[in-house]
Amino acid sequence: MPYSIEQRDEQLVGTTANITYVLDFDRAPQHLVRVTLRVSAVTTEHVTLVMPVWTPGSYKVRDYAGYQGNVQAYTVRSGVRSEAPFQWRDKASLVVQAQGADTVEVEYVVYGLERTVRTNHINRFHAFLVPTAVCMYVEGRTEEVHHVLLRHDQRAWPQVSTQLSPVRAADATGVLLGALNYDILADSPLEIGDHVVRTFTVKGARHELALASTQPLDAAWLEQQLVRIVETEAALFGGVPYDRYVFILQCYPGVYGGLEHARSSVNAVDPSTMLDKVKAKQLLALLCHEFFHLWNVKRIRPAELGPFDYTRENYTSALWLAEGVTSYYDDLLSYRCGFLTQAEYLEILSKDHLSRLMLVPGRFRMSTRDSSFLSWVKLYLQSPDANNRFPSYYLKGGVVFLLLDLYIIDHTDGRATLDDGLRALWVRYQEDPANGMSEEECIAILERATGVQLRERLLLWLNGTDELPYNEVFQPLGLELAVTAETAQAITFGEERSFAAVPAAVFTGLSLAESGGTLNVRGVLDGSPAQRAGIGIDDEIVAVNGARVANQKLFEQILAASGQHGVELTCHCDGRLYTTTLHPTANMKATLRLVDQPTERQQQLLSVWLKRPA
Ligand SMILES: [Zn+2]
Predict the structure, then answer these.
(1) Of 22, 99, 314, 391, which residue is least crowded by CB atoms under 10 Å?
(2) Ligand 1 center to residue 75 CA distance, Å?
């Protein structure tokens, strides 16, 4: 059967399955889920079961088998269970001797107390389950229908939010859910508990918001914004390709992240997000981002990203398509949704994208394509020195596609945009959903759809380590990237009396963190004043000009006050003190702004780029 992640709820109603996972939650207070995996219609001598080592979308080997234990295997004949011999084939694969039986059962527990969007989190109040970290697959039988029976206290945990489809109405035996194949099961996280659920219909499809939070949050407001997001993205692609979609939103202290799935997404933010306008806008961009992935990455995808090998790294150079394009579109879609004004959108591009990339020396050391290929040991396994060694394919990839969109608009006199390229990639998926694309095919489709020969340009930007040609691409739209030194701000008080001068912040190349009453170095940028001063990661800043300083704010103020004259630092490294002189430089920032007197053509092209759907 060809690879498919498409499923409609009606397809699972009343189905039977020869592979069923029974999940019991009586050990939830100890952060355990008990799993009974029942495999029937066995015709082979052995049944091999494998726990994935990673979750698609999160490019890191996590060795989920490390959280698994108490494994026991049985054969079942005429309803009678007998213990079955088994052995481990490798760290995550189990071979059970079927001994001629038709049915094999394997029991195990899985421990989960890691609060991220790609790991299990189980306690007495809820269970968030990531199937790749719970459900071993049966080798050779991943294309069959799979069932999951949830046996929890349905009064304590009345809500089950997941893209898995109901097989029948919940009853005393539990909640029975299904997937047409293992790939769909692996892609279907579950939030089970007493969380808030809201449902709404857009474009004829059912949508669910599952809001898991220890703080009361405004679910009605969130629902309104989600309606806008669905409408705006559906307008881009011409409708939605699902019957039902689930937004899982987890609000817990200190978390941030998202993970995309075919008919759902998991989004995690701090509860304070809803009290802070800047953070709330980040949340809306995050929701736009993960929702956009249902098209770009789950369906429009590089060949390496589906079907998956769950036992090892799946290398791809094309995360520029998966994450670069999506990073560019998340803020652009926020703007199209009306969450940002034009000025706010330009400010986000300036601050969060262009200025941030300017502070990544690694962009001169590694290409975006290599950063993608090595994501398993780079972006997902960062050394404290990472910023100096490679650029994120999210950050640089997003900027590359900002440039590509403007390049297309300029070279077609505004008749095409990157939207046209995306829609053509979407058509390609619908014609051949079983197979992902090569990078070459993807670029050829973008060229055909936009009529622009962009291959050489795009590959240069994706393979290169030179600075991107910002102003060459911005100029035709009446935009310019101005890199300017931060200046002192005049502050007045009372009747317009001038306040003590607040000097401009300066640049050192240091990232600092306070911990336990000390000021510690977390990062040193290559080529920066801090590097020239010989300061290293993990060193402690003890004193400035002979006076003790353990407070980051104060440290920054002293440096700003002394300007570029320099300060004497006393630092601590590995049990010994040293002194050095730090000479900060002007703090530069990148601003994407409109030119003063745009031509008619510049104005017209700009309006094409920043057009909102009617
Ligand atoms: Zn993403």
Answers:
(1) 99
(2) 43
> What is the CA(153)–ligand 1 centre distance, in A?
34
Summarize the chain as % helix, strand, coil (round to 5): 30, 30, 40
268 Cα to the center of ligand 1, angstroms:
13
Residue 553's CATH number: 2.30.42.10
Amino acid 346: pLDDT? 98
Ligand 1 centroid to Cα of residue 290, in Å, is: 6
Assigned domain for 484 exists: no
At 401, the pLDDT band (50, 70, 90 cuts) reads very high
Mean pLDDT, range 275-290, rounded to an integer: 95
Chain mean pLDDT for the chain? 96
Sheet order of strands, 175-179 included:
80-83, 68-77, 103-111, 32-39, 19-24, 146-151, 175-179, 165-166
Distance 349 CA to ligand 1 centre (A): 17
What is the whole-number distance in angstroms between the Cα of residue 235 and the centre of ligand 1? Answer: 20
- Cα(532) to ligand 1 centroid in Å equals 36
pLDDT at position 494 is 84
Q: How far apart are CA 133 and CA 110, in angstroms?
A: 8
Neighbours of ion ligand 1 (CB under 5 A): 323, 326
Q: Each residue of 543-600: pLDDT tens digit? A: 999 999 999 999 999 999 988 789 999 999 999 999 999 999 999 999 999 999 999 9
d(CA 259, ligand 1 centre) in Å: 7
CA–centroid distance, residue 258 to ligand 1 (Å) = 7
Same domain, 579 and 600: no
Query: Same domain for 230 and 168?
Result: no
Q: H-helix or E-strand containing 580?
A: strand 576-582
pTM more than 0.85: yes
Distance 163 CA to ligand 1 centre (A): 19
Residue 2 lies in a domain: no
Collapsed DSSP state (helix, strand, coil) of residue 552: helix
User: Ligand 1 centroid to 326 CA: how many Å?
Assistant: 6
Contact 77, 102 (CB under 8 A): yes
Report the number of distinct structural domains present in the chain: 4
CA angle, corner 396, sides to 355 and 319, nearest 5?
155
- Are residue 356 and residue 397 in the same domain, yes or no? yes
Reported as a single tens digit per residue, the pLDDT across 326-384 is 999 999 999 999 999 999 999 999 999 999 999 999 999 999 999 999 999 999 999 99
The answer to whether residue 493 scores a pLDDT higher than 90 is no
**How far away, in angstroms, is 320 Cα from ligand 1 center?**
10
Can you give the CATH number for the domain in which 233 is found? 1.10.390.10
